[in-house]
Design a protein that fits this description.
This protein has 529 residues and is α/β, with parallel strands linked by helices. The chain has 18 helices and eight strands. 49% of the residues lie in helices and 8% in strands.
Length: 529
């Protein structure tokens, strides 16, 4: 029989042991919070898992894959076309080839030889190039329309003299003094180059031109209303795509009278995930509620790739894919706080090693596509699927097995425990990526697209009105869509205005020929790649 005192003693030990375990877990959580705060304030904002950062690879293993890479023919029947060194140098040095050259001649003023006093004759010329800048020129274009009357003084059926007036090009905003070119420049400056209207106002003041920010704002709002029909067309085309990526970010909206009250609202982004013919749609909403993606996507039944935000889960009809970069990010945050000695046996570092091996495969096949100018997009998708099947699939299996094996040995409430649970939950969805070469391994493309808005937000801080928010959604969508399709956004905007005027006058609502990849896009609007 066990003595009562001994039993109490054993229970006390169990209680103390449980308390120690609890306090250790709480202590680790607090340490993680402190380190996260320090990292956020003072650390580098990077997700690259470099050798010097992790120090967990042998140097040779870090620089190579550890095995001979198969030739392209071993995986699929595609030929890789390498760029010659001459072509590579041309890309690097051909930055100013399209600029006009203005020659300024400098002649020798004193042509008398100081020795014999004879005349010095020209024996050659030395040319030196400098990149010159001439500030933009604003001027008033006065349209002078000729009117003509019949020399025989003919009259119409109402007895009025026959008079003809010369036609002039119609402006995108007919009642505004702003030309299409100037309007496109104002819009691009604000939404593409993140130059707020008050800075544009100041810029024009320095050139002795007074244009108030209220006037600039009115032009932008009115232009966005004219662009709205094309924005809706882009949205309808996006929803036909079989692969969409989504993301969202915050933006502060304040009372129009600049009262202290303000509220956090959201700018949502939806874009097609394919390599080409990309469409990017921004949509402003008051909240981060799941009803927003549900209302936007409706009964969308294809692939939807996002981060781990559960609001997207309500889009029940979509096939969900998550983001490998978000999984990796959580482990990099952990490893960045470890000492070099701790990194050697770190579970988080081992997970990153697996993920980096997967990304090596992705980068390799993407490089093949970029260097082979003759490869079609469809062939690239097939090649990527073959690469993933032969090289990435085994890594995925090892990664999943490792996470399942180590999950029980980590503290559930620690940062590592949370990262492991997050990875276990979201990794299975990436099996779709292995089986479909169209799909990306992560949602980084959407994050890059929304970055234009984030950079602009740092400059203009907040949105003042619903009209301003809607205008931002429309204009960001058109500009970033143009940019993502390798067009010159400002020039595309001018061309789009001119063609929307024609559509407006003919009451035509088919805008297929105005899409950024249309054959009707002029050559000078396309960026050289």
């Amino acid at each position: 029989m066990v003595d009562i005192k001994e039993e109490e003693y054993i229970n006390s030990i169990k209680k103390l042991t449980n308390k120690v375990d609890f306090l250790e877990e709480e202590n680790q959580k607090l340490k993680d919070l402190i380190l996260s705060a320090k990292k956020a304030m003072y650390g580098k904002k990077t997700e690259k898992a470099e050798y010097n950062q992790l120090n967990i690879f042998n140097e040779v293993e870090f620089d190579t894959d550890g095995e001979k890479e198969p030739d392209i023919e071993e995986i699929a029947s595609y030929k890789r076309k390498k760029k010659s060194q001459e072509e590579k140098n041309k890309v690097k040095n051909d930055n100013f080839s399209n600029l006009e050259k203005v020659y300024v001649n400098y002649e020798v003023e004193d042509k008398i030889c100081r020795i014999c006093k004879g005349v010095c004759k020209c024996i050659g010329k030395v040319e030196t190039e400098r990149l010159k800048y001439q500030p933009e020129k604003l001027y008033i274009e006065v349209s002078v329309q000729e009117t003509a009357a019949c020399e025989n003084k003919c009259e119409d059926e109402n007895g009025k003299t026959i008079i003809k007036t010369a036609e002039k090009p119609e402006s995108f905003l007919p009642k505004s003094i702003a030309s299409n070119e100037f309007l496109a420049h104002i819009i691009a400056s604000k939404y593409l180059y993140a130059l707020p209207l008050y800075r544009q106002e100041y810029y024009f003041e320095n050139h002795e031109i007074n244009i108030s920010r209220q006037t600039l704002s009115n032009w932008i709002i009115n232009a966005s209303k004219e662009f709205e029909v094309f924005y809706e067309y882009l949205k309808s085309e996006l929803l036909k795509k079989e692969y969409i990526q989504a993301d969202e970010t915050t933006v502060t909206m304040i009372d129009k009278k600049f009262k202290e009250s303000s509220k956090k609202t959201y700018m949502w982004l939806y874009q097609s995930g394919e390599v080409d013919k990309n469409i990017v749609i921004f949509e402003h909403q008051k909240t981060r509620a799941s009803s927003n993606p549900v209302n936007f996507l409706g009964k969308y039944k294809f692939f939807l790739q996002t981060d781990g935000y559960t609001g997207y889960d309500k889009v029940n009809s979509a096939i969900r894919i998550y983001c490998m970069a978000h999984i990796r990010r959580k482990f990099i945050e952990i490893v960045s706080k470890l000492t070099q000695e701790q990194k050697k046996n770190s579970v988080a570092a081992k997970v990153i090693e697996y993920i980096e091996d997967i990304y090596k495969v992705e980068k390799k096949v993407k490089k093949i596509y970029e260097e082979d100018e003759e490869m079609k997009v469809e062939d690239f998708y097939e090649l990527r699927k073959d690469y993933r099947t032969k090289k990435s699939l085994s890594i995925f299996k090892e990664l999943n097995a490792y996470i399942n094996e180590e999950l029980d040995s980590v503290l559930p409430e620690s940062n590592l425990g949370k990262a492991m649970v997050y990875a276990k939950k979201h990794l299975p969805s990436l099996n779709h990526v292995l089986n479909d070469g169209r799909l990306e391994i992560d949602n980084n493309s959407a994050e890059r697209s929304i970055k234009a808005f984030v950079i602009g937000r740092k400059n203009w801080i907040f949105i003042v009105s619903k009209n301003g928010a809607k205008a931002s959604s429309i204009l960001y969508s058109i500009l970033i869509t143009a940019k993502s399709n390798n067009l010159k956004p400002e020039k595309y905007l001018v061309w789009l205005m001119e063609n929307l005027i024609l559509k407006r006058n003919s009451l035509e609502n088919d805008f297929k020929d105005l899409l950024p990849w249309s054959d009707s896009i002029p050559y000078d609007i396309k960026r050289k790649t």
